[in-house]
Specification:
Layout (H helix, E strand, L loop, with lengths): L1 E3 L39 H16 L4 H12 L17 E3 L3 E8 L2 E12 L11 E7 L4 E10 L8 E3 L4 E3 L2 E6 L12 E9 L5 E12 L5 E7 L2 E6 L5 E5 L3 E5 L2
Antiparallel strand pairs: 1-15, 2-4, 3-4, 4-10, 5-9, 5-11, 6-7, 6-10, 8-9, 11-14, 11-15, 12-13
Length: 256
């Protein structure tokens, strides 16, 4: 039976704790940062004190920037950014939880379809270059049968089209890459749906299904896409001019 699982905010009760006073000083003549003695993360107690410091800062209302500044000054910790800038939310895109239906039984095995839909709230500025990507993924393994994507505009300028040439399809889902066409008032990816027909792989279990929509503009594109149980991983040609929307989850019992 289909069940929709709504997302919920997770509220952490952070306990206030005291930490050492003052700021880290560089060692004489070296220019290197030296952490305060009780905030040296090379030691177990130091790492514990760092966590207590973060708890205190958060409890006092500090945001990420304030926490980072304090950790840099006192514990010589610099936020790792090797993976690139965080991906902003694509807040102009409505992305609902996927709909999942039983459609038939083949050889005694239920066959299902997962439908993911997106809708732009407003047409992005012209021109919108770069690829767009849409994916549906499962945290448990399924057996894909076939897939299709439909997309079009909101005006007659871009009638709905469909195709089956997925960028990736495997036991954890499907993804399509789309190169948009656009005029001053519409785009051919303004609205769309994907469908993945699939079977279970045996055993009665729940799987969670979600969808994603990746949006790029200017000269940024998507160089690739992979999908596993953790979700889709988009290859970006730049850390600028990109955004990613993630849907709420749908939970469904397969092979039951």
């Amino acid at each position: 039976m289909r069940r929709i699982v709504t997302t919920a905010a997770l509220v952490l009760a952070l306990a206030a704790a005291t930490a050492g006073q003052g700021h880290a000083d560089p060692s004489p003549g070296s220019g290197a940062c030296v952490p305060e003695a009780d905030l040296d993360t090379a030691t177990g107690p130091g790492a514990d004190h760092v966590l207590a410091l973060v708890d205190t800062l958060r409890a006092d209302g500090a945001d990420d920037r304030a926490v980072d500044a304090e950790l840099a000054a006192r514990a010589c910790l610099v936020r790792a950014t090797a993976a690139g800038a965080p991906i902003p939310d694509a807040d102009l895109i409505d992305l609902a939880a996927p709909d999942v239906y039983v459609i038939t039984t083949v050889g005694g095995v239920d066959r299902w379809v997962a439908i993911s839909a997106w809708q732009w709230q407003e047409t992005p500025g012209h021109p919108m270059r770069g690829e767009q990507g849409v994916a549906t993924w499962f945290d448990g393994e399924i057996r894909p049968i076939l897939q299709v994507v439909h997309h079009g505009g909101t005006t007659p300028a871009f009638p709905s089209v469909s195709h089956e040439d997925a960028a990736v399809v495997n036991g954890h889902g499907v993804g399509f890459l789309l190169t948009p066409r656009q005029n001053a008032t519409d785009t051919d990816v303004a609205t769309g749906r994907t469908a993945l027909v699939f079977e279970g792989t045996g055993g009665c279990r729940d799987v969670t299904v979600r969808s994603a929509f990746a949006h790029t503009w200017n000269d940024t594109g998507i160089s690739g896409l992979t999908i596993d149980a953790e979700g889709p991983a988009f290859g970006w040609t730049s850390t600028e001019d990109r955004a990613l929307a993630l849907s709420p989850p749908t939970s469904v019992g397969v092979d039951c």
